[in-house]
Design a protein that fits this description.
This protein is mainly α. The protein has 4 helices and 2 strands, in the order αααββα. The chain has a domain of 97 residues. The chain is elongated and about 45 Å long.
Length: 150
């Protein structure tokens, strides 16, 4: 059970908000053209910086967390640069196959709405492995921003 009065609760939830922002943008990147990926990639910089700040100020500037954030940032660069930045198709409508790897695009309405303007989650499940694994590492095993610490 979560202890919302735990001193780290506020900071773990702050990190979770930033990780969710990254997840939503990265999902959009998986189905976008390279030019659109560039724009979306810029939107991930502030949440990455905020994660670094939370780590520095509230987690003792953990080397492990810092490394995991760096791994996440690197995965977003890789996602941005797929096919050497020459992806011309945009499948943001969720129809068809990934413009990079040709995997069928996943499109569904979640039971929760991350934001009111996002009624559908649309992403390539294969390309999403690039960033979901680093995101998971940030919230697992009691070393990162996981709620198991509170």
């Amino acid at each position: 059970m979560l202890d919302l009065s735990h001193p780290q609760s506020e900071h773990i939830f702050a990190a979770a908000r930033e990780m969710d922002r990254i997840l939503m943008v990265a999902h959009k990147m998986t189905v976008a053209s390279s030019s659109k990926r560039e724009v979306l990639f810029e939107l991930t910089k502030a949440p990455i910086a905020k994660l670094m700040e939370v780590n520095e100020h509230h987690f003792g500037n953990s080397e492990t967390i810092r490394g995991r954030i760096a791994m996440l940032a690197k995965s977003l660069v890789t996602l941005r640069n797929l096919n050497e930045g020459k992806i011309t198709d945009d499948r943001s409508d969720g129809i068809g196959h990934c413009p990079y790897c040709s995997t069928p695009i996943k499109r569904f309405q979640p039971q929760y709405k991350p934001r009111p303007d996002d009624s559908w989650l649309i992403y390539c499940p294969q390309c999403s492995n690039l960033y979901t694994k680093p995101l998971d590492k940030l919230s697992l095993d009691g070393v990162g921003f996981g709620t198991d610490a509170i």
